[in-house]
Amino acid sequence: MRLSAETSLPPSVQAPGYDRAAQAAGIVHIGIGAFHRAHQAVYTDDALAAGDRDWSIVGVSLRSGDVAAQLNPQDGLYTVSTRSAAGTQLRLIGAVRKVLVAAAESQAVIDAIAAPTTHIVSFTVTEKGYLRRSDGALDLAAASSPSSLYRFLAAGLAARKAAGLRGLTLLSCDNLAGNGAVLRRLMREYLAAEHPGLVDWFDANCTCPATMIDRIVPATTDADRAAAEAALGARDEGAVVTEGFGQWVIEDDFAGPRPRWEDAGAELVADVAPYETAKLRMLNGAHSALAYIGLGRGHDYVHQAIADPEIRPVIDRLMREEAAPTIDAAPGQNLAAYADALLGRFANPALHHRLIQIAMDGSQKIPQRWLETLAWHQARGARCPSLEAAIAAWIAFLRSQHPVDDPLADKLREAAAGPDAITRLFGEGGLVASEWQPLTSA
Ligand code: CS2
Prior knowledge:
Layout: E1 25-30, H1 34-38, H2 40-49, E2 56-61, H3 66-71, E3 78-84, E4 87-93, E5 96-101, H4 106-114, E6 120-123, H5 140-143, H6 149-163, E7 169-172, H7 179-194, H8 199-205, E8 211-214, H9 222-232, E9 240-242, E10 247-251, E11 267-269, H10 273-296, H11 302-307, H12 312-323, H13 335-346, H14 355-359, H15 362-379, H16 385-399, H17 409-417, H18 421-426, H19 438-441
Helix pairs in contact: 4-6, 10-12, 10-13, 10-15, 10-16, 12-16, 16-17
The structure holds D-mannonic acid.
GO molecular function: oxidoreductase activity, acting on the CH-OH group of donors, NAD or NADP as acceptor
Keywords: Oxidoreductase
Domain Mannitol dehydrogenase N-terminal: 26-262
């Protein structure tokens, strides 16, 4: 039997604590993968359970129909399994109303963005989903393709302006440095090229807050779905698995109403940068290093790599001696305690977080995870042995038999094959955007 609103839940499974059917949709979320379902949707579910109203989420997949096929037959319902060494807890999330597939229902997506009840459009489209060139500008040709998020947003915003509705908060929840400012810049570039009459309205009526968003969410496996089915007594094709930890720091700059996410533990702050920088350079920087070094040493999972006595000291040093000194900590932000907590999270044996999942899209991740740290130290005449080892491991990965899942895969493999790999990848005009100049330092 398939999970649906009719399923009677076992007592061990927490159910949504509010009337789902009575909620208007206040959020359109673009890129409704496992990460959104295990993070922002859970915070929204908590806010609704705490009494906030009308924040149901309309999920959008830009191309693939997979998530729509998982969730729509289940009335948008799915479970989140929280896993630690102490065991697994299952919870049913009610915040998602339905999932639209933009490639097949573009007008429905535009209508959802333009709906009077919608106040927020949020995004988890991964680093490459923003269609940024290596110089930081919008790839206008890609952004004009039928499945570009910019097209749907622009059409939805144009409809709002025409209807005299207020603007929107555009909330990037991806691991980019300055994600809000990046989205604002790229959206403005798109509008300036394609809808110049909308730029001033966009500036006056829409905001793009920065966010730091954190929860480790491995890709769901068949074994995970089977475990959820056994615990639930119903088949959940949309099941997601995650850790107990979650963090969300949001710049308090909304164009209109927002959910009381703080009731669910989110932090609304004036400046997200110290949290975001720490997360990108310490957590994500360590993750990518674990991925390439770990795969090179024959490991499959993060918890195996961090337990390897050859790898652990490299990661410890990367976080504490290379990344942490580059971060201007906020009052009360303790980077040493953060590193301790990260080592504990990486060691979670119940999560089965695959290194190959983290290894994908290296060309899009490495600049903000490693190269900004390297550039900081370079400007002070210092070296970063751990990050240099990580770069060597990435090049070895590109030369290996492992599948390379990256928008630049072919070019990266070709560049990595020769003796001048470092220059072709990171040198001036190289494949990876960088302030770091390897020719003079490494
Ligand atoms: C990971 C992230 O796949 C990756 O690149 O580093 O998805 C990481 O698990 C999350 O950012 C944690 O919040």
